[in-house]
Design a protein that fits this description.
Blueprint (H helix, E strand, L loop, with lengths): L6 H12 L5 H7 L5 H5 L2 E2 L7 E2 L16 H35 L11 H10 L9 H14 L14 H10 L6 H11 L8 H31 L5 E5 L9 E7 L2 H10 L3 H9 L5 E6 H11 L3 E3 L4 H6 L5 E4 L8 H5 L5 E4 L10 E2 L7 H15 L15 E5 L3 H9 L7 H9 L4 E5 L11 H12 L2 E5 L1 H9 L7 H5 L2 H10 L4 E3 L6 H14 L11 E5 L5 H12 L3 E4 L9 H10 L1 H4 L2 E3 L4 H18 L20
Parallel strand pairs: 4-5, 4-7, 5-6, 7-8, 8-9, 11-12, 11-14, 12-13, 14-15, 15-16
Antiparallel strand pairs: 1-2, 3-10
Helix pairs in contact: 4-6, 4-8, 4-9, 4-23, 5-6, 5-9, 8-9, 9-22, 9-23, 10-15, 18-19, 18-26
Bound molecules: Broken Fe4S4 cluster (MSK).
Length: about 650
């Protein structure tokens, strides 16, 4: 299997081999052959009588020691993955709410409210009376209200959903009782000897995922905008070539924006710039990896060095003076790779330490001081580079990022129109087929970036507007899809016309993993605008994670399905060991929420199935054919 389609990554993989440095791909190979029981989800590790495994070719009545069959085992494993992902996103949301509370109470460290308009809008949604209150007083009430939602209902932002979806949630008992509470309940239900009914188990998982998407993730997004500013379209660059030979390079990596925002501010400090010059550098270059990169990119235009599978490769350029990590998607293998270079690797979260790696704990009240300390360490390390090991690929690509549910209004409506009407009208007229969200990680089991690129290219060529987040957005950014010009190079004629009129790329970057909540909001706005049905499940839209890796991706896909969206997910989330569970996730659940999973491994076929789904929805809405006669090209939708 080809390791990557990214030329810069390829060069660094070759360099790693030349230095005999093991990377994620080498470790992946040593893991083969994978355990088939684990891959199918039919290995149960929950109690100490096991592990038990069910033979997929054995008698259908085969059971584990306690009597659990394949359906129960697969369903329990699946929702434990949802709980892991929902916990990660939601704890991120809690950290942002805590940072907002800290800023509101004047706790120091340089944190303060930046977007007061959004603060007031969110306060209004939360039912907080703002008359006569100062910005900090409002912020304190908003932060406290959000923090309460971890323990108890209601999860306020679920009210943004269309009435028809809310009725479905009520009927199926899918309203979370609190963000944390549902995660705890998943762990309880899946303990040995509790819930056995696979449908009941899966619905509990969907409820926890909804608490993530409409709760933890959504408040992480909104409160980050309040603290650090709401994004607006901004130009930048992506790929390993953003690392500079003549500057101090600081790579921020992980997910939370709090420390990285402060590091970016510190990198502009006159005194530190002077210190960098004294050490022989021409400046201080901050760039990022994974979603921490995206948080800085969306708000300030700092470049993205790469996505999940690029993290070790960034160090192999030999020019990363310091890599500062927070939480999530940080490979333990980084410590070994950093040990082969001069790179200073710094952990900053009490939740994510590495043996033998320097730990500088982030504390809100000392945020500014800590950021300065980190930048100073990077500068001090600049002269320690080994010149013979510097090997920075030249590859970079221009991009436009910074779209949000709020500013798409303006961008799709033209300068003076703040409405989703032009988007809905373009779909109704057949100029656009629909909207697809292509999101999620990289996974060493599949060729790096290939799935994201192939699927997105197919979709835009068939007049589907694509919105993206996370590592998927970085993959397509590196390929040039986030440039407005790419519309003329690869989009269908109808999408080209929209892009030309509005001045947007055919692929819109909506942010980090928690910012998938921006996509949920945009879907609600499309329903509210009218003409495309009453529910999210009526819209000609679809979602996909073609290179899924993390439990967070499982949670995202589950809240997307729980919100009524047809969602392609690959590789499948270890459910294929149970025919019943697979059937429920890919068909039966549609009757409950209006959405369903599709486990198609081939990205082009996945795209075609999304297109077929959109065409079905268009037909159900009574919409005319595609303006440029593309409907005949969709393939038959067959399951994998
Ligand atoms: S960083 S969760 S690998 S998208 Fe959000 Fe990328 Fe997936 Fe991590």
């Amino acid at each position: 299997m080809k390791k990557t389609v990214d030329r810069a990554a390829e060069k660094m993989i070759e360099a790693a081999a030349g230095y005999s440095i093991k990377t994620v791909w080498d470790r992946h190979e040593t893991m083969e052959p994978r355990c088939g029981f684990g891959d199918l989800g039919i290995c149960c590790n929950i109690c100490l009588q096991g592990p038990c495994r069910i033979d997929p070719f054995g008698p259908s009545e085969q059971k584990g020691v306690c009597g659990a069959n394949a359906d129960t085992i697969v369903a329990r494993n699946f929702i434990r993955a949802i709980a892991g992902g929902a916990a990660a996103h939601s704890d991120h949301g809690r950290d942002i709410a805590t940072a907002l509370l800290h800023a509101a109470r004047g706790g120091g460290g340089g944190l303060r409210v930046t977007d007061t308009d959004k603060l007031k809008a969110i306060a209004g949604e939360l039912g907080i009376e703002t008359n006569g209150l100062s910005t900090n007083e409002i912020a304190e009430k908003v932060a406290l209200s959000c923090l309460e939602q971890f323990a108890r209902a209601p999860i306020s932002f679920m009210n943004r959903a269309p009435e028809a979806l809310k009725k479905k949630w009520t009927k199926a008992g899918l309203w979370p009782k609190g963000i944390d509470r549902e995660i705890v309940e998943v762990m309880h239900r899946t303990h040995a000897g509790v819930d056995v009914d696979y449908r009941n188990i899966i619905l509990a998982g969907i409820r926890a995922a909804l608490g993530d998407g409409w709760g933890g993730s959504m408040l992480a997004t909104d409160l980050s905008d309040i603290l650090f500013g709401s994004p607006s379209p901004i130009r930048s660059r992506a790929n390993l070539g953003v690392i500079k030979e003549d500057a101090v390079n600081i790579v921020v990596h992980g997910h939370e924006p709090t420390l990285s925002e402060m590091v970016a501010r510190a990198s502009r400090d006159g005194e530190l710039l002077e210190y960098a010059h004294q050490n022989g550098a021409k400046g201080i270059n901050v760039c990022g990896l994974c979603c921490t990169a995206i948080e800085l990119l969306m708000r300030q235009g700092y470049p993205a060095a790469g996505n999940f599978l690029s993290q070790e490769l960034a160090i192999i350029t030999g020019a990363v003076d310091l890599m500062c990590v927070d939480v999530q998607c940080i490979m333990p293998g980084l410590a070994d790779v950093a040990g082969c270079f001069h790179t200073e690797l710094i952990t900053t979260s009490p939740k994510a330490k590495m043996p033998g790696v320097t730990h500088i704990e982030f504390e809100e009240e000392k945020a500014q001081h800590i950021a300065h300390q980190i930048v100073r360490m990077a500068i001090k390390n600049f002269p320690n580079r080994r010149k013979d090991r510097i090997n920075i690929p030249e590859d970079t690509m221009d991009l436009v990022a910074g779209f949000t549910a709020e500013n798409i209004f303006t961008n799709l409506g033209g300068t003076f129109r703040s409405t989703y009407r032009p988007l809905n009208d373009a779909i109704i007229s057949g100029r656009l087929r629909g909207v697809a969200a292509v999101i999620g990680c990289n996974n060493a089991k599949v060729t790096h970036d290939e799935g994201h690129i192939a699927m997105t290219k197919r979709l835009i060529s068939r007049d589907v507007l694509v919105v993206q987040t996370g590592c998927s957005a970085t993959a397509c950014a590196k390929e040039g899809f986030l440039r407005p010009e790419s519309a003329f190079e690869m989009a269908g004629k109808g999408l080209q016309e929209i892009c030309e009129t509005v001045g947007i790329p055919p692929v819109l970057h909506l942010g980090s993993c928690v910012d998938n909540s921006r996509i949920l909001r945009a879907l609600c706005e499309m329903v509210n605008e009218g003409g495309l049905g009453d529910d999210i499940s009526d819209l000609p839209v679809a979602g996909a994670a073609p290179e899924a890796m993390s439990e967070k991706a499982v949670s995202i896909a589950s809240y997307t399905v729980g919100s009524g969206v047809f969602t392609v997910f690959s590789p499948p989330p270890r459910v294929e060991g149970s025919r019943n569970v697979t059937e429920f996730l890919t068909a039966g659940i549609e009757e409950v929420t209006g959405g369903k999973f599709c486990f198609e491994r081939d990205p082009i076929r996945g795209a075609d199935m999304m297109i077929a789904h959109m065409d079905e929805k268009r037909k159900a809405l009574g919409l005319s054919g595609m303006m440029y006669g593309k409907e005949a090209e969709t393939v038959e939708a067959t399951s994998s």
